[in-house]
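Progress note, sequence design subtask.
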């Protein structure tokens, strides 16, 4: 059995996995496996498990079962999988687990014979898709020509020297030589980025610029400066000739298989893999749209506070880690929010966390409710397959994984992750059994057309 990450609701990363993969229709491997192991690595996205930490256990040994339940009333977790966990993970520590029914929180809506509008053409793979993927693979074998004449234009990759001056004096970290930059990429401040277009190679220019008011450096915020710039050359990438020799190299280096000896065979292999992934993405999107309907028609009668608390803390911890990592580089919280989250301020972040966690928990409730009604489960064999894929992807043995999980007190939560995402797959199959697909071709945005 394969396990699939449901892109819209199941992503709890700062940059969602949907964003990570949406422009990668072929990645040279099993997309589902790679998404799964990345997801499990987060270790915070399935049902929370309220087993006590090692240092807390001794303090709870003398407490009665009723006292324990009372003290954990605010941290209850949906874990009707309790007995199942003991079956697939003999010896698992389940101390402190609180078990209650999913229907304490949800009356699930209709999930059979749903009518879903979707662009059916999205699962089609074109010759242009194949060529684009081939071009990406061939980049590793490309050469670069240094064009030392002509004028820069948007999209050019250039090599340049620059020096930033404020009141005629070079400011800190504003000077560099032999730098590579893509004109129009927006990685420099906007005035400098725009000023690099239309420059003659080899000629020195003075480009007046103004730093943004919220740049994050008190000495430069809102200040007028001048960048003295010389473009040394325009870097022209030259792809190799597309022949059988290149096809063999790519197939060997990418481990596509020894049977690929010609360019036609390589293209066919790429198309086959693209088609598999396109159909998988189509299936995921179809399930996402169905779950939106199911959740919208469901009645929620309470909140599992433990899950809300855990997921909220996880998202906050991720943000705090970014702040800790980048603050020493002079990067502000506002810049982190804008770059990693595309959010303007902390208030917008708090709203994002609240909405994301709410969607996550509602998805869990709906998935578990459907699984319970249909008596769906995940076999131990399927769970072991996922763990093997996880170990293979990260280059660790199962013994090492189990040791790391035990040391970090995450064994139970890891296996709950495995179970929950397995349920996502079997629930998806059940929902899609009776779904009615209504073709809704994608619309073309013509607002900017003349």
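Output:
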């Amino acid at each position: 059995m394969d396990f699939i990450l449901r892109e819209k609701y199941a992503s709890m990363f700062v940059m969602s996995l949907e964003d990570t993969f949406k422009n990668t229709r072929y990645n040279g491997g099993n997309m589902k496996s790679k998404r799964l192991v990345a997801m499990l690595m987060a270790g915070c996205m399935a049902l929370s498990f309220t087993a006590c930490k090692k240092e807390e256990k001794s303090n709870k040994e003398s407490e009665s079962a009723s006292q324990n339940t009372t003290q954990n009333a605010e941290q209850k977790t949906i874990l009707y999988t309790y007995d199942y966990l003991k079956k697939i993970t003999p010896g698992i520590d389940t101390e402190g687990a609180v078990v209650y029914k999913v229907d304490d929180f949800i009356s699930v809506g209709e999930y059979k014979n749903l009518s879903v509008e979707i662009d059916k053409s999205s699962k089609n793979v074109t010759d242009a898709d194949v060529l684009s993927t081939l071009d990406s693979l061939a980049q590793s074998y490309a050469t670069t020509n240094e064009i030392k004449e002509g004028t820069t234009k948007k999209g050019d990759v250039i090599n340049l020297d620059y020096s930033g001056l404020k009141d005629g004096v070079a400011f800190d970290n504003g000077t560099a030589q032999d730098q590579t930059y893509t004109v129009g990429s927006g990685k420099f401040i906007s005035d400098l980025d725009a000023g690099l277009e239309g420059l003659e190679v080899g000629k020195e220019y003075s480009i007046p610029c103004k730093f943004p008011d919220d740049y994050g450096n008190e000495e430069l915020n809102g200040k007028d400066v001048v960048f003295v710039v010389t473009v040394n050359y325009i870097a022209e990438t030259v792809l190799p000739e597309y022949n059988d020799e290149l096809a063999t190299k790519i197939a060997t280096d990418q481990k596509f298989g020894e049977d690929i000896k010609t360019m036609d065979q390589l293209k066919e292999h790429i198309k086959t893999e693209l088609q598999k992934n396109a159909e998988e993405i189509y299936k995921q999107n179809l399930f996402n749209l169905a779950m939106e309907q199911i959740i919208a028609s469901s009645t929620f009668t309470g909140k599992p506070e433990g899950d809300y608390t855990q997921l909220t803390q996880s998202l906050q911890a991720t943000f705090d880690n970014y702040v800790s990592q980048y603050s020493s580089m002079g990067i502000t919280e506002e810049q982190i929010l804008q770059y990693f989250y595309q959010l303007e301020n902390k208030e917008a972040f708090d709203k994002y966390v609240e909405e994301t966690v709410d969607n996550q928990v509602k998805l869990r409730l709906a998935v578990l409710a459907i699984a319970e009604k249909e008596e769906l489960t995940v076999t131990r064999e399927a769970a072991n397959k996922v763990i093997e894929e996880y170990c293979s992807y990260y280059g660790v043995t199962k013994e090492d994984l189990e040791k790391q999980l035990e040391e970090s007190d995450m064994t139970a939560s890891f296996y709950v992750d495995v179970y929950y995402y397995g349920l996502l797959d079997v629930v998806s199959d059940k929902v899609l059994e009776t779904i009615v697909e209504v073709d809704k071709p994608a619309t073309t945005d013509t607002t900017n057309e003349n």
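DSSP finds 15 helices and nine strands in the chain. Work on this subtask will continue into the next period as scheduled.
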